Amino acid sequence: MTEVVTNTAPPLPDESAAAAAGAALASGVRIRTLTELADLAAVSRLFEAIWRPAPGNPLVTTELLRAMVSAGNYVAGAFDGTELLGACFAFFGEPAKGGLHSHIAGVAAAGHGRGIGFALKLHQRAWALRQGVAVISWTFDPLVRRNAHFNLTKLAARPAHYLPDFYGPMQDGINGTGDTDRLMVAWDLASPAVRAAAAGRPDRVDAAALRAGGAVAALAAGPDGGPVPGPADAPVVLVAIPPDIEALRRADPGRGRAWRVAVREVLGGLLAGGAAVTGFDRAGWYVLTKEPS
């Protein structure tokens, strides 16, 4: 699950710590790393409440978190007073603790809309830079529009791989029972794009303007809300995803599966062919650029 990276980026502890502190202040929380059993148990309960996994299928146990932090890995929580509203868990990987993989992060419903997720990620960034880590990787479901916008625009992470059915059946309240395709992203912590995003100045893309300039829609939504493939024969290509895949899975599982297959074929195929995701329009479009042949 961990990207192979090297420690080539210069540490930016002062800048990253200031950005993290500012984001926490703006969201009204205090973020700290966690080591005590009571705190780790609260993190486990928070994740259970957010993902609602099937009985006997816990996301992370208190014991696992305890072992991870004792080995020097990252668990942090966002608190409003004594209430835990968000948490993030990451662990080191190859080469020789040079990479950090952020396995799970979540915010309780009571904390939505406050920027707590952003504050948690900036805290994680500052912590990782202090360890000499240049890149953090994580996965997300490419069909979830709000996560694509958060990861690719607000944080300026960039997809590295499309991973079909990465986790296998998860059977929880968010992923349902279908395939668990994921995009693996790499967050280059000291890059100009990430530094600008951390300072609240993310680079935004406009799919409508790109289409007016010659970009083509390799996947769009049809009149019935289902996926409609199109051409991919331009230097800039757009790939659509539905507005709310979680609601669609509940209301129309067949159409939800159709989107999964279409995005796997089109977005996954473009990435496998050498195209790069360069941004995400909040209106629901991945923007990809292709190297000239």
TrEMBL record:
Source organism of the structure: Amycolatopsis rifamycinica
InterPro entries for the chain: Acyl_CoA_acyltransferase (IPR016181), GNAT_N_AcTrfase_prd (IPR038764)
Domain of life of the organism encoding this protein: Bacteria
PANTHER family (UniProt xref): GCN5-RELATED N-ACETYLTRANSFERASE (PTHR41700), N-ACETYLTRANSFERASE DOMAIN-CONTAINING PROTEIN (PTHR41700:SF1)
Protein name as it appears in the record: N-acetyltransferase domain-containing protein
Lineage: Bacteria, Bacillati, Actinomycetota, Actinomycetes, Pseudonocardiales
